[in-house]
Protein: Acyl-CoA dehydrogenase
Amino acid sequence: MDAAFTAEQDEMRRTLREILGKRCGPDEVKAAVRTAAGYDHELWQQLSRQLGLPGTAVAEEYGGVGCTPADLALACEETGRVLLPSPLLATAGLVAPLIGALGTPAQRSALLPPLAAGTLTAALAVPGPALAIALALTGDNTLGEWSGGGRAGGVQARGGEDGGWRLYGEAAQVLDGHSAGLLLVAAHTGGFARSRTLLFLVRADAPGLVRTRQATLDETRPQGRVQLRDVEAELLGGGGDGGDVSGVLAATGRTAATLLAAEAVGAASQALSRTVEYVRQREQFGRAVGSFQAVKHRLADLYVQVQAARSAAYYAAWDPDQGGLALAQALEALRLTAGEAIQLHGGIGFTWEHDAHLYFKRAAADELLFGPAHRLRAHAAQRAGLFPARDAAPERTAV
Structure:
């Protein structure tokens, strides 16, 4: 294993950091999240045209760059540094891999090129706060309860005599659900006895589709509520069975966890850097705050946390099966670093408008949406077989 970055990866990091440094200061981020879409559309187009960012993990035959998940994780570390509000995670991290894995040749040819070019954005619509379970990050996604369980609630799919599908129901807390041009909706079909979760494609202009933006703790991750009122939909994969939905969702979840871990590492690193810079300049009792030993110890502990999380994220980029553990460590590092940043900025840090709160909100919101960390670790341990099943009979030992 060669853990060194290639010259191309270093150049991508440098170029991306340069662009974001000019266009993504705290004031620009706050202005972007208050637009209707929740992000800077012009900047998104620049990142798409100049760097091919949304097509990083899309195969070249569909207009993508054809890179590895490590390249996209490297980009996410840079976008995380500035808390870039963009459709990158929902489009390139969630929907594009699902279409690539489950879509028919016609669906892939029609949808992946515009997704890779950034001209079409997409969102994965999962009912309620069940995204972490749907992606098999905090629990088993094969049971199906996360999408409605075949009973009332969630989203239901009904097949017609003409072979088409109609969707009914609601999904809240959908990342970029209010603005995406394409929705990939998880819905139950088959009733209670033959209940099964399938994925369906829904265009933004479909009759009966109602979308509203929701108020969120972290405005840099805009979310929407999606209501489906007898909406026409296309089954992803066709053929009536939709493929191994739970397995592909779990694989996508592991890669998405790696991207989220890289984002959290970038955010934690930037929060720490800004805090170090502040305590070097801020004086108290005639000397810089950062010169006090207690402050140095706190910053040193944070540095170790961030570097450990970075190592875990880089390893997960090489082995996505470790994505859940890397995400748990990165989220904890971001939460601790953002909290200490507020503390060490003193009175100004406690003002709600200070930039440190942007990082604290990202840490809290990501744990609510994709965690929490202890459940990420518990599920990873269960998958690895570290603990026996609860219903297993204990072994008898001779006395």
